[in-house]
Amino acid sequence: MEFSGKLLPWDATDRTSQIFRLSSDLKHNFSLPPPPSMAGAGDSYHQGNIRMTIEDPDLWRSFHEIGTEMIITKPGRRMFPHCKISLSGLVPYAKYILLVDMVPEDGLRYKWNKDKWEVAGKAEPQPPYRTYLHPDSPAPGSHWMKQPVSFLKLKLTNNALDQHGHIILHSMHRYHPRFHIVQADDLYSVRWSVFQTFTFPETTFTAVTAYQNTKITKLKIDHNPFAKGFRDEGTNSKRRANRSLADPERVAKKMNVSKDSEHGSPRDIQQSACEGLDDEHVGRKESEVKGERYSPWGGASDRDNSHALRAESPLGSDPRDMYSSEQLVPGQNTYQPYRFHEYGKSPSPSSSAGSSSGCGSTGRSSFESRVPDVATVPDHDTSSKPSAPEFGLPPCPPHPSAGHQDYTGVLNMAIAQAKPGMLGHHPLYAPYSTEQSLGQWSGAASAQYPPPPPPHHHLPSEYSTQAVHHGYHHGNVGDWSQYPLFSYSCW
DNA sequence: TCCTCTCTCACATTTGAAAAGA
DNA sequence: ATCTTTTCAAATGTGAGAGAGG
């Protein structure tokens, strides 16, 4: 079954900021069909029929089945596989901005123990929240649609003081990239626009400073051209020798990689915690992969023991919980929007600890405020990035269990390469100065939107989910959500 | 002090874009 | 103007070692 990412109409005047997110499974929480009045209604600017697909889905799945790891370094490291998407359904002549940010999977920290990932405690406080702006932004829909859009240059770093606009992550934490499409002529318009967000479960990864799972290393070497020198057939005899011990395994792995992605994996590996994701996101191949996945996630074998399982695997036995119900609400707080992540039934430390967050123990939705703001601050590194403005998306509020978070609101975007003029003469930057940021945020938000929900409290009804979930399976087609932004001004 | 875990660094190799030359 | 070659910055995983914490 295929269900393209048809946007549900959104009334721009609707301050309740309902977010509609297509889920991939009707049997989940929000199974309401779209109100007839909304289905296919009118304004193409706001509704469109946007569809996003991820490129190289098989490659992503190959990694995902093992447990994708992404290296993060101080100077910044590219992702591999890198994010590359295809878009359709955009208004050809309308301009869009493409953004990517990294969303914590949960409020947990992990460790690699022998051959599997285990929970190692609560997540560390969230580092400065950044969003990567595609350098082509803004560009007309026709531009985005004519060929796949690559985020090759996106870099991940563990340097909280990074000044290059790289996305800052914590090592040993899990994230997934989230793609945003905003119809806007420039960044100034962004805040008036509707964000449409897409996620691809198979892009979930663990940020690491050094690879933990040797199978991931091998997969990277086998597929990343820059790592060609480390391949068995490569010229580096020294490294070949070092790796020779693992050769039998490598051979077996190589033989299995392609197969595994579609036909399951070695049986010595416990079932993948990602199984559920595959079930619904890997096209209609679920029957082929279910229960056979190789997984680095410990405890996954005990599928029925959801508690035990989820304690170790944030994806849980039914990862759909995580992806199928995302609601985004506008941040009402001028500088402290909150994001609530709740992973449904998962009794993970994070969710349990987050009871005070107001997400409710029964709800599956993860609520997020998406209030991208751009801090206008002095550029303190003009030599290296004279026009390296960054703006942060809405400070991703903390996971309930993540402890104190950095609300600096640094919405850094690596827009150094963005088209000149898109930001006009305003120096956008992403400082880590709370004072500055907060100062910027002190806009008159409340004038436009209802009062903000109290932090760590139940969302008021007007923010409650009215998500509409459809069967939305097309392998690498992203889930999407739509939400208005910018309840306050910051420019 | 020892151990474990995580992170950093220099290294050899490869890629790919830009520059130089034919 | 076009094609080929050269140069060089950037990207890659490796493995040793440092550093923090228990």
Automatic annotation (TrEMBL):
Keyword terms of this UniProt record: DNA-binding, Nucleus, Transcription, Transcription regulation
Gene3D superfamilies: Transcription factor, T-box (2.60.40.820)
GO term, biological process aspect, one: heart morphogenesis
Residue ranges with Low complexity bias: 345-366
InterPro entries: p53-like_TF_DNA-bd_sf, T-box_DNA-bd, T-box_sf, TF_T-box, TF_T-box_CS
Residue ranges constituting the T-box domain according to the UniProt record: 54-232
Region (Disordered): 226-325, 337-405
Compositionally biased residues, Basic and acidic residues: 226-236, 246-266, 279-293, 301-310
A single cellular component GO annotation: chromatin
Subcellular location per the Swiss-Prot or TrEMBL entry: Nucleus
One Gene Ontology molecular-function label: DNA-binding transcription factor activity, RNA polymerase II-specific
Name the record gives this protein: T-box-containing protein TBX6L
Claim: DNA-binding is one of the keywords in the record: yes
Superkingdom in the source lineage: Eukaryota
CDD domains: T-box_VegT-like
UniProt xrefs under Pfam families: T-box (PF00907)
